Amino acid sequence: MEAAVAIVGLLFVLFVLAGVFVTVKAVKAAKRGVDRTVAHARRTVEDTTLRARQLAQPGVVGELAQLRLSLRTSMRATQEVLYGGSPDDASLSEAIGLFERLSAHGHELDDELKRLEREPDRATIGVRLPDLRERLERITHSAESLRWAARDRARKFADDDLASLSDQIDVESGALRHWTRVEDAMDPLRDPVAGRPESAGPGATKSPGQGQPTDGPARTGATPGPSDAAARSWGPTPEDPPAITARDPRTQPSYPWQKAPRTEDTTT
User: Which parts of the sequence are annotated with region: Disordered (predicted)?
Assistant: First the structure.
């Protein structure tokens, strides 16, 4: 009895621990989802604000907003390409490390541009704009180099995989059509002039009666020889077409879905 109580208590503790673990995991996952949603909403609001400021406030403030918007767009696009392709390509890990170092410089530049937006001295901002623009171009150029290199690498792998798949499909298609090669090899009409007497070479000698018109076997009463049978086995000739005879139902091939042919006895 005590053993049963201990087992039940142990199972209860295990169920409680499992419930707590599942609850904690669910809370963390929900928190991560909320954080992603909040970060995405914040980025959307900031981007919309920068676009509105770029259009509504021409001059130094509008140029600062344009620089921040260009920096954020380039860095975000590169981040999506690198982190999106890293699960399928482990070689992008080094590129991701370089991008993280580049992101530090990008965040520093974005913070500086944000501080200059609140600077009342527009002349000082105008003096520092060329340097800020040059830094922005260097950062965005590096980000674009990483992004396009990753895209070209992914496209190269896709092209190689498609070429290999096409070759395999061609081989399989040929294997599925194996009967066409067998039929071509066994077709008696593939070389219709191979068995005729005219196919002999120029050095072959003619028989004494060859080349002279003779009466057919039906007129003289003689039976056709083996050479005539071999010559006529390739098919009808225009000079002497063979007679058409009806098929004997007893010699026709039968198939499982056909009934056996009826044979009727005839009495004389």
Answer: 182-268
Q: What is the CA radius of gyration of the chain?
A: 45
CB 126 within 8 A of CB 60: yes
pLDDT computed for residue 23 by the predictor: 86
- CA dist., res. 121 & res. 251, Å (int): 110
pTM: 0.54
CA 81 to chain CA mean position, Å? 20
Cβ distance 189 to 235 under 8 Å? yes
pLDDT at 31: 79
d(CA 173, CA 184): 17
- In the chain, the largest separation of any two C-alpha atoms, in whole Å, equals 130
Structure tokens at 187: 């077709």
> What single DSSP character describes residue 196?
S
Handedness of CA 183, 189, 193, 195 (dihedral sign): positive
Residue 107 Cα distances to 24, 68, 101, 103, 263, angstroms: 33, 10, 10, 6, 98
Q: Which long-range contacts (CB under 8 A, 24 or more apart) does 141-149 make?
A: 142/102, 143/74, 143/75, 143/77, 143/78, 143/99, 143/102, 143/106, 144/74, 144/78, 146/78, 146/82, 146/95, 146/98, 146/99, 146/102, 147/77, 147/78, 147/81, 147/82, 149/95
In whole angstroms, give the CA distance from residue 173 to residue 4: 66
Q: Please tell me the predicted confidence (pLDDT) of residue 140.
A: 94
* pLDDT the model gives residue 190: 54
Taking the chain (268 residues) in runs of 10, the rounded mean pLDDT of each run is 80 85 85 78 79 80 88 92 87 90 93 87 85 93 93 89 92 84 56 48 46 47 49 49 54 54 49
Q: 66 near 54, Cβ under 8 Å?
A: yes
